[in-house]
Amino acid sequence: MSTRGPIRLATRSSDLALRQAATVKAALEDRRYDVELVEVETTGDQIQDELIHRLGKTGAFVRSLDEKVIEGEVDAAVHSMKDMPTEQPDELIVAGVPERAAPGDALVTPDGATLDELPDGATVGTSSLRRQAQLLDARPDLTVEPLRGNVDTRIEKLLAPGLQAEHEARTDAEKEKKGNTDNDDYEHPYERDVETWFSGLDEIERRALEREPDVEYDAIVLAEAGLDRSGLAHRVEYRKLSPEQFVPAPGQGALAVTSRDDEVGEAITTILDSPRTRVETTAERTILDELGGGCVAPIGVHAVLRGEYVHADVQVFSRDGSESVTAGRDLPAENHVSAARSFAAELADRGADDLIAEARRDDEEAEAKREEST
Predict the structure, then answer these.
(1) Exposure string (b/e) for 176-200, b if CB count within 10 Å is 16 or more?
(2) 48 CB contacts (<8 Å, ≥6 apart)?
(3) Residue 48: exposure state from Cβ atoms within 10 A (0-12, 13-18, ≥19)
(4) pLDDT at position 144, please?
(5) In 15-101, which ranges are continuous DSSP H helix?
(6) How many CA atoms lie within 13 A of 289 on its CB side?
(7) Span 351-367, pLDDT tens digits
(8) Is residue 131 classed exposed, middle or buried when 0-12, 13-18 and 19+ CB atoms within 10 A define those classes?
(9) Phi, psi of 288 (to 5 degrees)
(10) What is the pLDDT of residues 267-283, one digit of tens each?
(11) What is the pLDDT of residue 214?
């Protein structure tokens, strides 16, 4: 490798994507490879007003990066695996699947409340069809509102109303204090003045104060891995959601490095690949591929390698969470791909196909209405 230039890794330009790509870069550099990150703006990054499930049908966060690899402009691309379509271009391989981070979801609230502790009719933010259906299945009274943006942006939208209300209250108290300088009985309601309070805020809280949110969220749901990799897990209040009740998206928490089947691809496999994570995520993506729901239907698939078996949990919901097909199965590790396909086919026959078809019809009808309105 010493005779060639640096390995060029394509990545999205969001903070989270850059942090993820940096871990891949560091692993390669530890083996004495020269690595350069190349930031690429994807279709998903450019279109900010579409729900994720509409973007995901065309691999909006993936294709732009992979095209750079196919065209030879870069050597490899770093993706969040859950964003990747199950069908990949023939020119590419998934060269590296590093060890997976926490695969589950996290409920983020201003005060650390659990899902059961949220008030009746609470507003929860997510643009994931899966999370929406799971939330409504657990709490039909909830109002689920769309939420897009980077991890820090979503958290700022959650924190903004409460912080702004507190800032206003503190400011009013300061004004009242100044107007009561001659009143010995006046008691100031806060121990710290506005300036001292502001100086004690975290950076993300200060940014939240400057936001003008359209929706006031009581909670939001994010991938736990995204919180960790963004360096925000210790700066917010959150509760882990049970991966048994809230089965994660296929590949959630895992990264995938795509490349061509060449010298660079071989090096990436040797250095980065986690056999355990590859088996687990392959089982998950095989089930998703066999079901054929993609980003159209609310589907959760989570697999864990346990000795000679891969235990897979699957949930397929209607979009309102009122109907579901759920099951768990131990798949033989030695033939986990064929076993995963058989498992998915059984789920399809048990009604998963009907739920996915219904979701697809809903999507087509919504698309037709949007076209009529334009």
Answers:
(1) ebeeeeeeeeeeeeeeeebeeeeee
(2) 148, 149
(3) exposed
(4) 97
(5) 15-29, 43-46, 52-56, 63-70
(6) 17
(7) 999 999 999 998 888 88
(8) buried
(9) -60, -45
(10) 999 999 999 999 999 99
(11) 86
- The identity of residue 160, as a single letter, is A
The catalytic site residues sit at 82-83, 130-131, 148, 154, 295
What are 175-186's pLDDT values in tens digits?
876 767 655 555
According to DSSP, residue 103 is labeled -
CA distance 88 to 59: 10
Give the strand pairing for 324-332 and 143-145: unpaired
Residue type, 117: E
- The average pLDDT across 2-31 equals 91
Least confident segment among 50-54, 170-174, 208-212, 241-245: 50-54
The residue type found at 86 is: T
* pLDDT score at 47: 47
> Please, what is the end-to-end C-alpha distance for the chain in angstroms?
53
Grouping H, G, I as helix, E, B as strand and the rest as coil, residue 302 is strand
For residue 59, what pLDDT band results from cuts at 50, 70 and 90?
Answer: low
Measure the CA–CA gap between 353 and 370, rounded to whole angstroms: 26
The single-letter code of the amino acid at 112 is: G
The rounded distance, in Å, linking the Cα atoms of 327 and 340 is 12
Q: Which tokens go with 204?
A: 């993300």
Tokens 């979701």 -> residue: 359
> Which residue type occupies 159?
L
Q: How far is CA 268 from CA 12, 39, 85, 117, 161, in A?
A: 19, 19, 21, 45, 45
Q: Which of the pair, 72 or 48, is modelled with greater confidence?
A: 72
For residues 228 and 234, give the distance between their C-alpha atoms in angstroms, rounded to a whole number: 8
SS3 of residue 130 by DSSP:
helix
Torsion of CA 256, 258, 262, 267, to 10 degrees: -30
Would you tell me how many other CB atoms lie within 10 Å of the CB of residue 116? 8
- 3-class DSSP state of 282: helix
Cα separation, 57 vs 320, in Å, equals 20
Q: How many CB atoms lie within 10 A of CB 5?
A: 9
